[in-house]
From TrEMBL, chain A:
The lineage of its organism: Bacteria, Bacillati, Bacillota, Clostridia, Thermoanaerobacterales. Residues 139-448 form the FAD/NAD(P)-binding domain. NCBIfam families: gltA. Gene3D superfamilies: Alpha-helical ferredoxin (1.10.1060.10), FAD/NAD(P)-binding domain (3.50.50.60). GO terms for molecular function: iron-sulfur cluster binding; oxidoreductase activity. This is Sulfide dehydrogenase (Flavoprotein) subunit SudA. Residues 17-127 form the Dihydroprymidine dehydrogenase domain. It holds the Pfam family Pyr_redox_2.
UniProtKB/TrEMBL annotation, chain B:
Keywords: 2Fe-2S, FAD, Flavoprotein, Iron, Iron-sulfur, Metal-binding. Gene3D superfamilies: Nucleotide-binding domain of ferredoxin-NADP reductase (FNR) module, Translation factors. This is Sulfide dehydrogenase (Flavoprotein) subunit SudB. [2Fe-2S] cluster binds at residues 230, 233, 245. FAD binds at residues 69-71. It comes from Caldanaerobacter subterraneus. One of its GO terms (molecular function) is metal ion binding. NCBIfam families: PRK06222.1. Binds 1 FAD per subunit. Binds 1 [2Fe-2S] cluster per subunit.
């Protein structure tokens, strides 16, 4: 059986988009969405749904699209996924829902993510809202951290009628969605709109509160009357390599680089006050989404001529989303595979001048199942770069466990919970990157959902 | 643009301490309640502003206010200086960083402060004084009017020495010139706390090392989030990389790589200049508020 091709999504021309921070992918029109939706076989036993961590009812919402019932499609999606405009854009679909689509056997899978995005954008443009009027329960729950885990947990609890306050350390909500993922991949107006919906549901918000410093969990529970707490503080602590020269000027962690650009809008300096300093040749170390985001952001800054991603494995092992790797290549990002920095060299007055790198080869698979990179002795070479961005991954911050009674953590800092997000301390729940280490938006949301259920159960049984 | 309705941070008192330095009490009850000596805040003046760190110079949990003292050196601090009592600051987060520890058995503590390091030193000496330690201080600045917080310091110190570049107050010279005299003559001093320009802290530490007196410093690198998320604030202490906002700002002064710290403060010099020039052009340079 022949299948029709996937309907392509319009994108900004690479030559144009490397000069701006506007969104790269432009979304489907109604007609395009209907055309793509009509390719779906409406499988009676849809394998795609099993691939989605929050089990979006995929064939149902796709069917609604073919019938032009976009509002209904939206309600179907939001019955299990509270941030569809975000997920449609940033989920690693090729590893999840789309990987399991039956059409993979004979052609390209349904563009589930793009359709989800279409429906969510339609709802935002047309001010479609979920109608919920829950019965108020006079019980206060504190949500710590406003990334996807915290926002999802808050949303579900609000819909159940709880009195929810979100505490966020930064001045803006959204977690990585706001400070990490760039505008050209996830416009901040989308994140803000999702947050506005939560506020309409009655969420109270306190920004500029670093729990563990400004106030502790013990104080929230013992003095401020919060009966349950959800910790969704993410995994924000950046790793460095520990090689010589890493503290030279113009060596950044990807987190610093992206925070300056996304949260502080340094790409609009001097209109915005936060600066960013780059030279002409930028090296980005790493191979994940964070590395792609840092590289593509760097390329868009004034004065940057060349951006090279240095990754110790080969292209096949890169953990970044396939679509983002393709976008990076289209935009002219260069890649130095099977290479690992060993030293950053500086000028006399402390600025990056070049970077020494060693060649790697792939050995036996390691515990992650990926082939382990091994140094090739004597293969060192020097790259002339003046800016280095370390995108090596992040781990959970220990601030909360170290200031809260009875919260157990793993050796690497992850908070220990059961399946449903219960920590070792009654009334305290956790989920998202703070528990799993750096993972994905949809997994963090799934954890927030499970925890909301567990919190509800806990508060119902608590007398 | 995000609307802020809930918590804004009101300026309840403003004082001009000298032509370059201002003091403000900011309404921030949560910060005031949890603050400890040595800690700092990060504030953002308005929607397009940057996040700048300032030391907590004093705090009043009863009134819910936090005192900051800042020197106008660039766009953000100059802009802050134009605000008045009753105005609001968009964001004010803290208290951040660690607090100091005094070695067991220490009896007589010497504080050495320069410029806006003096108000930053103040809450530490105040607490030690209240805890019953003998406390003395050496304070310095360009000239008499730059040596601020004298009344406050004299109230919590058994003795205060002064040093000014031009000799208008105390000894003519640097705080280290006075420090040498004190350490030569007073063998009781067994702990030094120094806060001020990096170069001053470096020289103080060099001297106290010769006399083998444990010394702590309060570092002031560039920062963004102040919660350990970015690493902008990293310095080297004893050969290891540390994040000042989480591991500091207080460190063993004999282990800090001050030269690296000074280099890293230059990272955005070019951009800071652009920002300041643009600001002064728009606001008719030298505007200092009331
Ligand atoms: C650059 C980048 C690109 C990414 N791209 C993708 C992608 O394309 N697809 C994908 O699925 N995933 C992607 N990820 C991963 C994904 O963003 C994360 O897995 C997800 O955001 C985790 O959600 P979270 O809610 O657990 O934590 P976070 O999003 O990290 O949010 C945690 C929040 O808690 C706040 N916080 C921390 N400590 C405290 C405290 N003590 N008190 C108060 N608040 C606190 C933080 O400021 C933050 O706002 C990317 C990550 C990065 C960094
Ligand atoms: C933990 C901590 C506590 C601090 N406490 C105080 C305080 O109590 N009072 C106070 O006046 N300042 C304090 N600072 C310094 C203050 O944050 C900076 O002066 C301020 O951010 C400058 O912003 P700006 O935009 O006005 O100037 P910019 O345009 O950023 O800089 C102008 C000039 O000041 C220098 N500069 C910039 N940042 C710093 C810095 N962090 N330290 C020293 N020099 C700098 C620049 O190199 C440049 O020459 C503290 C810094 C830290 C990290
Ligand atoms: S939430 Fe993510 S995984 Fe689930 S259907 Fe949507 S795009 Fe696919
Ligand atoms: S598996 Fe593919 S074709 Fe089948 S219902 Fe899901 S999306 Fe449609
Ligand atoms: S200021 Fe970002 S980690 Fe310290």
């Amino acid at each position: 059986m022949a299948v029709k091709d996937r309907v392509p999504m319009r994108e900004q021309d690479p030559k144009v988009r490397i000069k701006n921070f506007d969104e790269v992918a432009l979304g489907y029109t109604e007609e395009e969405a209907i055309l793509e939706a009509s390719r779906c076989l409406q499988c009676p036993n849809p394998t795609c749904v099993a691939g989605c961590p929050v089990h979006v009812r995929i064939p149902e919402f796709i069917k609604a699209i073919t019938e032009r019932k976009f509002e209904e499609a939206y309600k179907i999606i939001t019955s299990t996924n509270s941030l569809p405009a975000v997920c449609g854009r940033v989920c690693p679909q090729e590893e999840q829902c789309e990987k399991n689509c039956i059409l993979n056997r004979i052609g390209k899978p349904i563009a589930i993510g793009r359709l989800e995005r279409f429906v969510a954008d339609y709802a935002l443009q047309n001010n479609i809202e979920e109608e919920v009027k829950p019965e108020k329960k006079n019980k206060k729950v504190a949500i710590i951290g406003s990334g996807p885990a915290g926002l999802t947990c808050a949303g579900d609890l609000l819909k159940m009628g709880y009195d929810v306050t979100i505490f966020e350390a930064l001045h803006a909500l959204g977690g990585v969605l706001t400070y990490g993922i760039p505008e050209f991949r996830l416009p901040k107006r989308i994140v803000e709109a999702e947050i506005e919906r939560l506020k309409k549901l009655g969420a109270k918000v306190e920004t500029n509160v670093v729990v563990g410093k400004t106030v502790t969990i013990d104080e929230l529970m013992e003095e401020e009357g919060f009966e349950a707490v959800f910790i969704g503080t993410g995994a924000g602590l950046p790793r460095f390599m520990g090689i010589p020269g890493e503290n030279l000027n113009r060596v950044y962690s990807a987190n610093e680089f992206l925070t300056r650009i996304n949260l502080m809008k340094a790409y609009k300096f001097p209109e915005y006050d936060t600066p960013i300093a780059v030279g002409k040749r930028v090296a980005v170390i790493g191979g994940g989404n964070v590395a792609m985001d840092a590289a593509r952001s760097a390329l868009r800054l004034e004065g940057v001529e060349e951006v090279i991603v240095v990754y110790r494995r080969s292209k096949e092992e890169m953990p970044a989303r396939a679509e983002e790797i393709e976008h990076a290549i289209e935009e002219g990002i260069k890649f130095e595979f099977l290479a690992n920095p060993i030293r950053i060299n500086g000028t006399e007055d402390g600025w990056v001048k070049s970077m020494d790198v060693i060649r790697m080869k792939l050995g036996e698979p390691d515990s992650s199942g990926r082939r382990r990179p091994i140094e090739i002795p004597g293969s060192e070479f020097t790259m002339e770069v003046d800016t280095v961005i370390m995108a090596l991954g992040t781990s959970p911050n220990r601030l909360i466990p170290s200031t809260t009674k009875d919260i157990q953590v793993q050796k690497w800092g992850g908070i220990i919970t059961d399946e449903d997000g219960r920590t070792s301390r009654p009334g305290v729940f956790a989920g998202g990157d703070a528990v799993t280490g750096a993972a994905t938006v949809i997994l963090a949301m799934g954890a927030g959902k499970k925890a909301a259920k567990a919190i509800d159960e806990y508060l119902r049984n608590k007398k | 643009m995000r609307k802020r309705v809930l918590r804004m941070y009101r300026i309840v008192r403003k004082e001009v301490l000298n032509p370059a330095v201002k003091l403000m009490d900011i309404e921030a009850p949560r910060v005031a309640k949890s603050a400890k000596p040595g800690q700092f805040v990060i504030l953002r003046i308005y929607e397009k502003g940057e996040r700048i760190p300032l030391t907590i110079a004093d705090y009043d949990p009863g009134k819910g206010t936090v005192t900051i003292v800042f020197q106008e050196v660039g766009k953000s601090t100059k802009l802050l200086g134009t605000l008045n009592e009753g105005d609001y600051i968009a964001d004010f987060v803290g208290p951040l960083g660690n607090t100091m520890e005094v070695p067991k058995g220490a009896k007589k503590i010497l504080g050495v402060g320069g410029g806006v390091g003096i108000p930053a030193l103040y809450p530490k000496l105040k607490m030690l004084h209240q805890e019953g330690y003998k406390v003395e201080a050496i304070l310095g600045g360009r000239s008499e009017e730059y040596v601020i917080f004298r009344k406050e310091m004299e109230a919590v110190c058994d003795k205060v020495y002064y040093a000014t570049d031009d000799g208008t107050l105390g000894k003519k010279g640097f705080v280290t010139d006075v420090l040498k005299d004190v350490l030569e003559n007073d063998k009781e001093v067994d702990f030094v706390i120094t806060v001020g320009p990096v170069i001053m802290m470096k020289n103080v530490c060099k001297m106290t090392k010769e006399y083998n007196i444990p010394t702590i410093v309060s570092m002031n690198p560039l920062m963004v989030d102040g919660t350990g998320m970015c690493g902008a604030c990293r310095i080297e202490v004893g050969g290891e990389t540390k994040f000042v906002c989480m591991d500091g700002p207080i460190f063993d002064g004999h282990l800090v790589n001050f030269d690296l710290a000074m280099t890293r403060l230059n990272m955005f010099k070019k951009q800071e200049k652009i920002s300041l020039e643009l600001y002064e052009k728009e606001h008719g340079g030298g505007h200092h508020g009331r």
